[in-house]
Amino acid sequence: MELERLTKSQVVLLTLLVSFVTSIATGIVTVSLMEDAPPTITQTVNRIVERTVETVAPSQPAAVAAIEKEVLVGESEQLARAIERVAPSVVRLYMPGKDESGNDMRMFVGHAVVISRDGSLIADAGTPDGSLTALRADSIEVPVNIAARPEGSPLIRLQASAPTGSNLTWEPAVFSQEKVRLAAPVVVIGGRTGTRVAQGIVTGFGGPEKDGVPSYVETDIASDTVAAGSPLISVDGSVRGIATRTSREASIGTFLALWAVMLDNVIPRSETGA
Length: 274
Known about the structure:
By secondary structure, the protein is an alpha+beta fold. It has three domains: 8-53; 88-160, Thrombin, subunit H, CATH 2.40.10.10; 174-272, Beta Barrel (Thrombin, subunit H), CATH 2.40.10. 31% of the residues lie in helices and 31% in strands. It contains five helices and 13 strands. It has helices at residues 8-36, 39-56, 60-86, 245-250, 269-272, and strands spanning 90-98, 104-114, 120-124, 132-135, 141-148, 155-160, 174-175, 185-190, 196-210, 213-219, 231-234, 238-242, 254-257. The chain has a six-stranded antiparallel beta barrel. Strands 8-9-10-13-12-11 form a six-stranded antiparallel β-barrel. It is elongated. The relative contact order is 0.13. Residues 268-274 have low confidence and may be disordered.
């Protein structure tokens, strides 16, 4: 066969054939050399190949997953700190009652939130009159009296009566009348027989409007954790809403928004943190 008489197509095909045969021969020689090479050289070559592949095709899904995990962990840590901050400021309210058999019992009536260091608290206006007892987060029971029941207000003010000679201290919660945003993470502190928490997000706003502002914060928190007086807390540790009988009747997981409540007659301004 004379190369001078080959057409252009035949020259291209011949070039491809030679390249193919050369590649196969090179591969065979390389494999043979690798099998006979010392282990240190083999390990070095493998590392170079692995790093080259990682550089060319980085694992982007793994990087995205790591970022998402970091965000979730950060949010969870914020909520945990918010709970630790507010939990000492939440008490459970009880009053004497009777069970179905007529026996004396302690009846749970709701929650209250500490608003000042002298033992003032706020609770749902539906809290009945009578002999009330506040069970603190440290398991100490303290008698409380209704100090103010403002007309038309959904909240009332209670006053704790510390035993004579006691050195009980009260840790007031921080209240905020700033409006929360949709989808903001929130947590509620509740529980009838012990402290229970539930996490959720803000799903909407509703209820009667005052000056064009909705009075309820709607969440996806289940109702079995929420009781009258349970506080709704944001990630910064401030109370943004209170569960009342009226708000709970309006919808499951709904709270009275503090920004829609005139707090002057219930919460001393210097104690609200707003």
